[in-house]
Amino acid sequence: MISVAVAAFLAPVAAADPVSRDCPGPNQYYADPDDATLFWECSNGIAYRFDCPAGLFWDTTLLTCNYPEQVPVNVSTTTAGTARLSLDPLGLTDLNARFDAGPSVGRWATITFTAADGTVLCTAQADNSGYASCDAEPGALETVADLLAGYTATYAGKGSVTPSSGHGSVRPR
Fold this sequence. Notes:
- The chain is mainly beta.
- It folds into two domains: 7-70, Antimicrobial Protein, Tachycitin, Chain A; 77-172, Immunoglobulin-like (Sandwich).
- The chain is built from one helix and 15 strands.
- The strands form four sheets. A six-stranded mixed beta sheet has the order 9-8-15-14-11-12. A four-stranded antiparallel beta sheet has the order 1-4-3-2, with no helix packed on it.
């Protein structure tokens, strides 16, 4: 197996959004769940972003940038919770899900929430614990039957992290 060690030659770039990029654990490296060419180094509670050279992905096993075909797959899970139905105005609040792809992948993935018919209700970025939540856009669905059918929370997958989804339920407020 050929790997390309590049971490020592890269200059860190401070995380653009420190609120969503706080370190999810102790001093270590994390793959970015939404971009396989990025990785994060956590040092003393601060996350620093690094970019792999063109054409390479972050390898969570070797902790270095590597050729995409040599990077191991990280299996993700997305588990949806229970949202709340409001009748006036008609809508869904607190659509929620928990994302996880193992200890070496950051948990701040982008989660898309959709209705049973595929209509996008809202999109949210998970926090450091992997929890994402949002409220459905007003008017996204028009009938109570549509809303009571539940929702799907989906992580699209990226690079070496597999896609995943989970079905959530709805309960009246």
